[in-house]
Amino acid sequence: MPGTSDTPDAPPAAAEAVDEAGDQGPSGQARGDERRFRRYTLAVLTFGLLSAAAVSLWLPFQPDARLWWIGPVLALSFLLAEQLGINVDVRSGISWTISFTEIPLVIGFFVAPFEVVLIAHLLAGISTLLVRRVSGRVLYNAGAFLLEITSAFAVAGLVQRAMGSAGMTWPAALAGTLTAPLASTLLALAAVRVLRRRMRIGTALRLTGRILVVGFVNASVGLSGYLVIAGTGNAWPLVVAVFLGLSALYWAYSDLLREQRDMEALSDVSLMVARSGQQAAARPASRVDDLAGGVDVGEWATIAERIKDQLSAARVVLRLRLEPTATMRTVVAGEPMPTADGLGDDALLRLPGAHVRHFRITEANADVAAALLDRGAQEALVVPLRSANQLLGVVEAHDRLSRWRGFGKYDVQLLGTMASHLATALDNRRLLATLRHDAYHDPLTGLLNRPGFRQVAREPLRDRTDAAVLRVDLDVFSTVSDALGYVWADRMVIAAGRRIREALGPEVPVARLEGASFAALLVECDGPRIHEVAQRLREQLSSPYLVDRLTVEANAMVGYATPSEEEGGEGMDVDSLLQRADVAVRATRGGEEVRAYVPSMGQIFLRRFQMVTQFRQALEEGQVSVHYQPKVSLPSRQVLGVEALVRWVHPEFGKLDPDEFVPAIEAAGLIGVLTGFVLEQALIRVRKWMDEGLRISVAVNLSVRNLSDLDFPKKVVEALRRFGVPAELLTFELTESGVMADPQKALPILRELHALGIVLAVDDFGTGYSSLAYLRQLPVDEVKIDKSFVLGMGTDLGDLAVVRSIVELGHSLGLTVVAEGVEEDIARDQLEAMGCDVAQGYLISRPLAEDRLEAWLQARTARSAGRQAETVLTLLS
């Protein structure tokens, strides 16, 4: 081709890089581009044939005996000029080749007719394309070749006639020669428009100007050489020397241009990888795999296409391990692989180190030759992508298209540098994927965590009502944790997570929220189907667990919530559904083990929320008060002390049960405020009794959260000092389950309190699961028998035996035994007969407000005159 060759480096069907960044367009757009380019090719070929026929009629063929050798020499000259060309990338997938074809063309004007030059150029150009295996664009280039030579001879003929010369003149030959690259450039720019590739007008004008300058230089050299040789027979060595000097300049320019192009390509690939990484990190997750930093293979296909264009390769294959534990995925740019499933491990992939290896089928051993033949390639550049001796992937480039000589040292250097960048990018992507996976997954079970579940469930829940969020609670977790340790509890959680995954399938998002609480997202399910799945899931989770050699019984509760028609879409988010499912789970504790959320349950949550948020205000406004329930000595019937019990009269909800608001306040982290309030009120009451000459102790209930406060003993000391109350008149009551929740943390606090002289009592004794094992370790002074056993003594021999055993156990350990729930005379008499020390219950008194307690003391007690410093109150019979 004279001057320039304007051909896309890849077939139009595969050329999809359309803008400055090389983004890949949709497949529908690519197919449309292919159809337009086919029509354009047909138009160029048709117009070229018609133009050639017209010029042939205008410039009739004149036979000459010398043509038998001039024609082959011209064809060989065109062929050599094509092979000595310099490739210039204009856009990804579009390139021009600056060649020396103007030299044989300008000489052809003087030594051969139009038809011979045309055929020689066609043979040289088409042969070059076939050798390079660019079979998908032969027709377009054939039409371009026809138009180049036709326009060149047409212009030369017009100039010649305008000058009135009968033979070819050098101005006519020069003008015709410059017309060929100009026609080639115009055809290529039209192809860019047909393919809808972006090119600025300024870029097109600069490119056209440079091509004309190069064409003018080549044509001038060829024309000068021909005229000198034609006029001076011995001048050909000088012409050859000038030609060699010009060739050296071109090659130097080619090296500089190649280096610049390689730097640009390297920069492009680096930017593509960086941008794809940023897009992957910013892309919202709609699947579980996305949370692991999943990579779009289309992004790597664009990178492979850019490498292929830069190397002028027939095919580039990227084999990438996009995830640490995944198998390699294959991305192909250019000619498709001969086998649809790619190639397995072969001689080309077993590469030591991280260097580029260059294989040629003519120089390879049998294994390498077989691997090349399997790929349908004659040569290949192969380089592994490694990081810290770990294989991340392999890059292969097959068969260079632009030169007969194949891949050179510059190609090897460029691919090696690109591979280094790709390896670093892959390593960074894998690290990012690992960090993202850890951020959104539970490390124990491998399931999603709460943030991960929120990310994955957000999109499926958008604008739909046929979905449900399930919450599953396994109620045996804390029991196993306290009895066997956290290692065994973790095994239970892992087993439960595995059962949920097997029951729901791999496509259902499942998360571990905390402890033994799980969540799952169901889509495209109606109400009955959701309940059926929840019921089946509960049954599977409630089956016994085989943990090592132990069989652990378990029970599961399932609650679920669905977006209603009114709340579907943006108004119903994941957190709201999780919250409602949690409310439904709490409702299962009433007996039904699978519950769907109903709006009335929301009122319970709202009520609890109001209690927590209004608690401090309730303290300030006097809504919260302390009532006192007396405790008496059974042998002497003397009042020994009282238990301080908190009461709350809410302005909207009325009287609130402590079992309702105390757990809510404790969960909200306000139990310290409540304990401090009750302690202060109780000490004020004891101080008043002391001022009246009475010595009555007061018992205050502690929470497990109080025992985790390292400053709690200091606060108690400060309160006792401030009110001037002796430590022995203060009793702290603790539930055994609260102490056993974390004995390592609670025991130091208890020992410190006991050392101050404060009486410590274990409340609700007998209902726990490990009291006998820990009772001797606890620095306690009293045990309080749970009222459920005391109430059942009269009718249940088992309860009677339990009470007797606790009394005997307490006395054997030197502890005072207090019985709660004494409501009948027979129970009091039985306890007295057993030797129980103290009784408390409705038989003695209900919890009383402070003013009513004073009235109760005045009405039912008498002062003992024999004591002045201390007054003992005796219960009147």
From TrEMBL:
For the GGDEF domain, which residue ranges apply?
Answer: 465-599
* Gene3D superfamilies found in the cross-reference section: 3.30.450.40, 3.30.70.270, EAL domain
Spans of biased composition, class Low complexity? Answer: 1-16
Recite the UniProt keywords alphabetically.
Membrane, Transmembrane, Transmembrane helix
Q: Which GO terms describe its molecular function?
A: cyclic-guanylate-specific phosphodiesterase activity
Q: Is Amino-acid biosynthesis one of the keywords? A: no
Transmembrane ranges, per UniProt, are: 40-60, 106-131, 138-160, 172-195, 207-229
Q: Where is this region: Disordered?
A: 1-33
Which PROSITE patterns does this one have?
EAL, GGDEF
Pfam families assigned to the protein according to its UniProt record, in alphabetical order: EAL, GAF, GGDEF
Start and end of every EAL domain? 608-861
| Record-linked PANTHER family | CYCLIC DI-GMP PHOSPHODIESTERASE PDEF, SIGNALING PROTEIN YKOW
Q: Which NCBIfam families does this entry report, sorted A to Z?
A: GGDEF (TIGR00254)
Name of the protein this chain belongs to: Bifunctional diguanylate cyclase/phosphodiesterase
Q: Which organism is it from?
A: Amycolatopsis rhizosphaerae
